[in-house]
Amino acid sequence: MSEPELIRLRPRRIRLVCWASAAALVVVFTLVATSLRGPTGDGYGTFQRGDQLAMVGLGIFGALAFLLFTRPRVEADARGVRVRNVLGSYELPWEVVRGIRFDRGAPWASLELHDDDLVPIVALQAADKELAVEGVRALRRLHQAHLARLTENAPGR
Question: Where are the transmembrane segments (predicted)?
C-alpha cells in the first residue's frame, strides 16, 4: 500500500505582494520618522525622539497587518482537509464535504459542505492561475478517493 497523499498549498502572488508591501511600508515610515524634527509649526509642540520611534512602530504595525494576508494555507490528506484563512481556520473530515468549487469569476476556491455551507479556501486564489487550478484538482482527487473508499466499504459489497 502506498504512502497516503498529503497536499499542502499556499498562495504565491499575494505572498510576494504582501512581503514587498510590508517592506516598503516600513521603509517609508522610517524615512518619514527621520524627517520629523523640530517645531510642529507655529504651535508649542516639537517632534522628539519618541515621535520618531512611534512613527517607525506604526510602520512595523502596518507591515504586520499586511503579513496577515500571507497566512492562508490548505492541507489535505486521506482523513480530511484543514483550511487556514486570514482570520479563522477549519478542520473538516471528508465526510462533511460535498465538493470543491472554483466558480468562474470567483476570487478563490471553496468547500461545499453537505449542510449547504461554503467554506472559503483563500489559499487557492484565482490570481495564482494554474497553481490554484492544480490545487483544486488535487483536492478533488483526494475527495474522490475518499468517496471510492466509502463505496468499497459499503454494506452489501
Answer: 16-33, 53-70
Helix (H, G, I), strand (E, B) or coil at 116: coil
Q: What 3-state DSSP class applies to 51? A: helix
- Whole-model pTM: value is 0.78
Q: Residue 132 sits in a domain of what CATH number? A: 2.30.29.30
* pLDDT, tens digit, 9 for 90 and up, residues 82-115: 999 999 999 999 999 999 999 999 999 999 999 9
Q: What are phi and psi of 62, to 5 degrees?
A: -65, -40
Residue 154 is placed in which grid cell?
Answer: 459499503
pLDDT digits 0-9 by tens, 47-56: 888 889 999 9
Instruction: Kindly compute the dihedral angle of the four CA atoms of residues 20, 23, 25, 29, in this order, to the nearest 10 degrees.
Output: -160
The CA-based dihedral angle spanning residues 119, 66, 129, 131, taken in that order and rounded to the nearest 10 degrees? -80
| Full domain range(s) for residue 41 | 9-69
Does residue 60 sit in the same domain as residue 92?
no
Within the chain, residue ranges assigned H as helices are 13-35, 49-67, 130-152
Inform me whether the pLDDT recorded for 128 exceeds 50. Answer: yes
